[in-house]
Amino acid sequence: MRRLSVLLVLLASACTENQTPPPDHLPYGDGGTLPPLTCVPNLDGQIAASELQAALGVPANYLVSPAGEERPVDLAGTVDAAGHRLWDWSAYAESDRRLTLTASVVTDKWYAASFPTGQFTTALDAAQTLQAVYRQDAEQMLLLGIASTEPAPPEGKTLIVYDPPVVLYRFPLAVGASWVSVGNVANATIRGLPYAARDTYEVSIDAAGRMELPDLGFAQALRVRTKVTTAPAAGQSVTRWQVSFLFECFGEIARATSRDNEQNADFTTAAEVRRFGLTQ
To answer: What is the DSSP letter of 103?
Structure first.
């Protein structure tokens, strides 16, 4: 009987009000403040320097045609009755490969001493064997030169320093802008061999319109044509077209590169096609 009395007392104690107050939890609220976006497209018909900043360490994915595969390409696009231009590059291609590009600082690269004013670098070719080195300010983006990704690749190192640097973009970018920039190359090395040349870049921005890609559509892209003529100290000159499509805050969203010595600025067969995408 005594055991039962003790048990009843314990049960009664357990049912009495808890003397320890519950913790005072804060309300959930709105989940905190989201960090502001560093760049928001305003669709004003031009691209300022602040809308074409390299995002260091942030990977960007592209679909790219494989090496050696030429591909039909439509650079002209279509124009409707209201004058709106459309480039439809939305069709998937089974042979496409994924290309991931990431901009990084120059200071930790083997070629850093050759580009003391270089700000960032990224892969130049789809195989990522070559790096392009850039500097940008409020007025222009400069191509300082090109170097092999590794200091001693099997095919031999490449190191090209432009003097003066080549003007790739003059800000703001807008339809109607054009310029010519010449970069001299001396005491350079290509695949381990001595090299000298004179490279002429002829750049024009000649159209704006909507660009449809497999994963995304962009309402107001700028078409930028770049004709590069390389005149080596020894050998024949080579000309190549690169037609890029740029969009505010995203940078280059599509590109078509011509075959060597292509004569038609609106070439219909490309040696390489790149398209910005989300495909992993």
So the answer is: B
Task: Report residue 242 as tokens.
Answer: 């690169």
- Tokens, residue 31: 């989940």
User: Which of 224, 200, 208 is closest to 143 using CA atoms?
Assistant: 200
185: β partners? 162, 197
Nearest to 44 by CA among 254, 245, 219: 219
Q: What confidence tens digit (pLDDT) does each residue in 139-166 have?
A: 999 999 999 999 999 999 999 999 999 9
DSSP 179: E
235 is written with which tokens? 């050998």
What single string gives the DSSP state of each residue in 42-77?
--SSEE-GGGS---BT--EEEEEPPTT--EE--SS-
Q: Is 179 exposed, middle or buried (0-12, 13-18, 19+ CB in 10 A)?
A: middle
Decide: 162 and 199 in contact? Cβ < 8 Å: yes
- Measured from the Cβ of residue 131, the count of other Cβ atoms closer than 10 Å reads 22
How far apart are alpha carbons 228 and 143 in whole angstroms? Answer: 13
Q: Which residues are CB-contacts of 169 (< 8 A; sequence separation ≥ 6)?
A: 52, 140, 141, 203, 224
List alpha helices for 177-254, DSSP H: none
2-24 residue pLDDT tens: 433 333 333 333 344 555 566 66
Radius of gyration of the chain (CA): 28
- Residues in CB range of 101: below 8 A, 6 or more apart: 59, 60, 62, 122, 123
User: Residues near 90 by Cβ (< 8 Å), separated by ≥ 6?
Assistant: 212, 213, 214, 217
Do 124 and 132 meet the contact criterion of CB atoms below 8 Å apart?
A: yes
Residue 47 identity (one-letter amino acid): I
270 half-sphere exposure, CB direction, 13 A CA radius: 20
For the chain, give the percent of residues with pLDDT over 90: 85
Please tell me the pTM assigned to this model.
0.86
